[in-house]
Write a structure and sequence with these properties.
Number of strands: 2
Strand content: under 5%
Largest sheet: 2 strands, parallel
Shape: flat
Helix content: 55-70%
């Protein structure tokens, strides 16, 4: 699935409209295979993004949990740590050459 689509449910603060739209756009891009649709497909592509965003909003509002809301900063830190472990730490920065 799309690695760029983030979990949007049970966060404090809740997901914004922009986050929902961005996730919907990524989903439609993945399904269609188009990063940017042609003019012939633009209307269908945009309508699909709207439909997916609407369905996502309904889903997020309709879900129920007893778990405490997740903190975005804590989750981002955990994601960076997983990425560093999976892909290794970035190479050290080389000092500026001396003149």
């Amino acid at each position: 699935m799309c690695r760029n689509i983030k979990t949007l449910f049970n966060f404090d603060p809740p997901a914004t409209e922009l986050e929902i739209r961005d996730a919907s756009l990524q989903f439609v891009r993945k399904l269609s295979g188009f990063a940017v649709p042609s003019r012939a497909n633009e209307a269908a592509f945009d309508a699909a993004v709207q439909d997916v965003a609407q369905a996502a909003r309904r889903l997020i509002v309709g879900l129920v949990t007893h778990a405490e809301p997740k903190n975005r900063d804590v989750e981002a830190t955990r994601a960076r740590a997983r990425s560093a472990e999976r892909f290794g730490k970035p190479p050290p920065q080389h000092p500026e050459p001396r003149n």
